[in-house]
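chain below, 397 aa
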Amino acid sequence: MPDIVPGPRIAIIGGGIGGLAAAAFLRRAGLTATVYEQAPALGEVGAGLVVAPNAVRLLRRLGVMERFLRRAVPLDWGWEFRRWADGSVLSVEKLSGVCEGLYGDRTYVIHRADLLDTVKAAVPGEWVRLGARCTAVDAGSDGALLCFADGSRVEADVVIGADGVHSVVRGAVAEPAPPEYSGLCAFRTIVPARSAPDFALRPAQTLWLGPGRHFVHYPIAGGQAVNVFAAAPAGGSLDESWSATATIEEFHSEFAGWDPRVTDLITAGGVPGRWALLDRAPLRHWSRGRVTLLGDAAHPMFPFFAQGAAQSIEDAAVLARCLAASVDDPEQALKRYEAARIDRTTRLQEVSRARRDINHLPDGPEQQARDTALAGSDPLVGNGWIYGYDAEEALAS
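prediction:
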């Protein structure tokens, strides 16, 4: 770790994966920061996520892989697509050995809370202020004034908005625009390993594709649980909060008639979470003056390419590099950061949106053509632009 040198007062709003990753990479670059998190304790709601090589290589550089591997599950079996009605296999891609050979690292699955703990290990505890809910950002030419719910105010030379899809900081850099109704909602639940069938405990990410819906499961928590995620028509559900819940009966009703292995997992998971998937158009700019955004605050995306957390980690690494290289000109550093990141994240937003329609085709000629294409596809190679990307090397080139 380099020596910490005097630099700009950097405030990070949000103590999730992206915010803590920004603090960790800033520390690695020799800068200091303060993370303001509205919750009384650091923690993640939600469930599992995929950590592909483009994020793993950056975690490795933070020196946190030992902690990461305590709870992460390598997807050695790989990815598989199955048909909704009978579980017939549409496509299988083994990752063990192949992923490392192509991209230098494995692909893992992990609970969000375990990834947060991994990144938190690289951030000094005194850098984090809990119970600090930012309510306004008053940006000026040489910094910003942050206002908090308790009446306190803080001056900062640089402000990083890592405060998610409902970002307060976003209002300081972009015109407000309401999200669009996607017509979809997401269900999530976690099944204890003791209640899960052996089929679901394999180190594989299994995607069941059906009309208007899809269903995903994979092991997490060192193999002690199975993460379940599903997308289905939203109906009247417009609640975007990850803390919102549904009933098991509602979850079942969306997947009635599907392979019993799907419905059995729904039953075993208990009360599911459910939130609306709202769509947001990509921003054309996410930095203004000395205020910028990262992660979901800058580029929220549908979870269908499993890159949300990975892109926030990439953002954090690049942002830290840019600020360290231009300590005396933070505004220029933020412009460079945005320019380095916006095309890639916009492309991922767009392909994630397109996947919604591909996954949910009704049975018929288009669905049959999709299934035939899946059988002959090689997603690991075909998506090399995602997994083979090195955010720090790309900045340097």
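The mean pLDDT is 93. DSSP finds 14 helices and 19 strands in the chain.
thats it, cya
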